[in-house]
Amino acid sequence: MSRRQVGSSRRAGSFPFAGALHSKSRSSPLLSIGLVLVGVILLICYAYRGSGIFRGDKEAVSRVEGDFSCTFEVQRAIPVLKKAYGDSMRKVLHVGPDTCSVVSKLLKEDEAEAWGVEPYDIEDADGSCKNLVHKGIVRVDDIKFPLPYRAKSFSLVIVSDALDYLSPKYLNRTLPELARVSTDGLVVFAGYPGKQRAKIAELSKFGRPAKMRSSSWWIRFFVQMSLEENETAIKKFEQAASKRSYMPSCQVFHLKSYH
Ligand SMILES: *[C@@H]1O[C@H](CO)[C@@H](O)[C@H](O)[C@H]1NC(C)=O
Ligand SMILES: *[C@@H]1O[C@H](CO)[C@@H](O)[C@H](O)[C@H]1NC(C)=O
């Protein structure tokens, strides 16, 4: 059950009614009053559909299915990334919403150092996440501005979801920043077009709806930014993924750092 299907069936349900309202309102006053009432109810439903009242259980379902976000996908991909990047996974920066979950998972790996940048507020974060922030391992930072790290501070930078919320104007600044602070590469996890994952209730937090771009859009953008794809990493990642029958549910791009 994908969110897209749910959304489109709801639209298909409400607009034909609106058409019936217009064509039949002349025939019988009672019928038209009834139809107006139905219309009002539909409008109320439509107005409330973003508020979470009609979304709550669907969210729970998608969390369980793992169809929640590309940040969740990063956690699933860690063993495959380790195979593809080997020693370059020693000093990782993850950038994206819910970064605490990725950082805690990376810190459980042997000899791994990990940091995180959380682009949005973390008021609802749990205690262990607040602890990571307190220790300075996770920082809450607006990624539209330069990152507070020196060039080549990390071996690998992994970014998930966050870029989907940036317009090209800000991507133009943020993407080079991510490449600047890494030495062995930048891995981008982006949503597939047509898979709208954003929780409508959280849109105010993200500022704008996510824009899921096609892989050809991203690749054109990387070329504009003089960011090259790392063919070795792509090949190793694909090999490790097929060995584990791992199918990412997000687009994964492997880019070289700026040198
Ligand atoms: C982003 O940068 C590229 C090249 O540096 C440029 O061609 C493009 O117009 C820029 N886009 C925006 C929206 O600023
Ligand atoms: C390409 O990826 C490999 C890991 O597969 C990494 O060791 C190497 O440093 C990367 N090359 C560049 C230029 O980033």
By CATH, the topology of the largest domain is: Rossmann fold
**How are the strands ordered across the major sheet?**
3-2-1-4-5-6
Which architecture name of the largest domain does CATH use?
3-Layer(aba) Sandwich
Integer-rounded radius of gyration = 22 Å
Please give the count of helices: 10
Could you name the ranges where pLDDT drops below 50 across 5 or more consecutive residues? Answer: 1-25, 49-67
CATH homologous superfamily of the largest domain, by name? Vaccinia Virus protein VP39
GO molecular function: methyltransferase activity
Keywords: Membrane, Transmembrane, Transmembrane helix
Transmembrane segments: 30-48
Key words describing this protein structure:
alpha/beta; Rossmann fold; six-stranded mixed β-sheet; 10 helices; 6 strands; globular; disordered N terminus; binds 2-acetamido-2-deoxy-beta-D-glucopyranose
Q: How would you summarize what this structure contains?
A:
By secondary structure, the protein is an alpha/beta fold. It is built from ten helices and six strands; from the N terminus they run H-H-H-H-E-H-E-H-E-E-H-E-H-H-H-E. Strands 3-2-1-4-5-6 form a six-stranded mixed β-sheet.
Please provide a written account of the structure.
- The chain is α/β, with parallel strands linked by helices and 259 residues long.
- 48% of the residues lie in helices and 11% in strands.
- The protein has a 6-stranded mixed sheet.
- It has helices at 3-24, 29-48, 56-65, 70-85, 99-107, 127-134, 168-180, 203-206, 215-224, 231-243, and strands at residues 91-95, 113-118, 138-140, 156-160, 186-190, 251-255.
- Strand 1 (91-95), helix 5 and strand 2 (113-118) form a beta-alpha-beta unit.
- The longest helix has 22 residues, at 3-24.
- The protein is built from 10 helices and 6 strands.
- It has 2 domains: 2-53; 68-255, Rossmann fold (3-Layer(aba) Sandwich).
- The radius of gyration is 22 Å and the shape is globular.
- The structure holds 2-acetamido-2-deoxy-beta-D-glucopyranose (2 copies).
- One 2-acetamido-2-deoxy-beta-D-glucopyranose (NAG) binds at residues 168-169, 172, 224.
- GO terms for molecular function: methyltransferase activity.
- The chain crosses the membrane at residues 30-48.
